[in-house]
Design a protein that fits this description.
By secondary structure, this protein is mainly beta. It is built from no helices and 18 strands. A hairpin with a 6-residue loop joins strand 9 and strand 10. The mean pLDDT is 91.
């Protein structure tokens, strides 16, 4: 469960932007932000609004691209549902989970599902599911897959087929021999004029705009930086 933060995302056909805690490598590019759609998709470039599932496959020139679709359907995030995020690990082991919890299918308000997309610093994407009872809740009217930024590549794992199952993950990994990105860490220490560490100082990377705050001894660290 992604219990660290609740995204300000409610209602029908809504999108919210979240900041990723590391540079997520996807089709040879690095992304620091994601657009989360109530309809079960995550885009890494601005999708221009919300996109309920239209029955198509991935990729598609008319649909959002640079995206991960753990469960692309038409959902409503009502007062009994939420979208949440959580970061775990560090460096090459870092992950960021986006969870759609107890969301309601617009086509049948009695049907609710929970699922997540876990983004890993190495570019792996893992989709997880629970609460799948009917065929519709197992993907009979939805799509699961990924799409490249230019719509020229992608993968439809399932489309309008009830193949999803509680407790069963779907993992999108890299082909053998493909190195997603050259990722680095940067650390340092902020010192006062007397040479003691400065606690709580704000450190900003330029270019990039990433910020962090120094620890009690003045040290700081940025992980998941991509070589330029």
């Amino acid at each position: 469960p992604a219990d660290q933060s609740v995204v300000a995302l409610t209602g029908d056909n809504a999108v919210a932007t979240v900041t990723l805690p590391f540079a997520f490598p996807f089709y040879g590019q690095a992304y620091r932000s994601a657009w989360v759609d109530t309809n079960g998709i995550v885009s890494f470039t601005d999708p221009g609004g919300s996109h309920p599932y239209d029955g198509g496959s991935l990729p598609s020139a008319v649909n959002p691209n640079a995206m991960v679709a753990p469960f692309w359907d038409d959902f409503v995030v009502d007062s009994s549902a939420s979208v949440r995020t959580a970061a775990a690990g560090s460096g090459s082991s870092a992950t960021f989970a986006i969870e759609w919890r107890n969301v309601q299918r617009k086509a049948n308000t009695a049907q609710r599902v929970s699922f997540s997309a876990v983004l890993a610093a190495d570019g792996t994407v893992t989709a997880n599911y629970t609460g799948l009872d009917s065929d519709a809740e197992k993907g009979a009217a939805a799509a699961l897959g990924i799409a490249a930024p230019d719509a020229g590549d992608g993968l439809t794992y399932s489309r309008n087929t009830p193949v999803l199952a509680d407790g069963q993950a779907v993992v999108f990994d890299h082909p053998e021999g493909v190195d997603p990105l050259d990722v680095h860490s940067l650390s340092g220490k902020v010192l006062s004029m007397s040479g003691t560490g400065v606690s709580g100082a704000k450190v900003t990377l330029d270019p990039g705009g990433l910020t962090t705050t120094t620890a009690s001894d003045g040290t700081y660290r940025f992980d998941g930086l991509v070589a330029d």
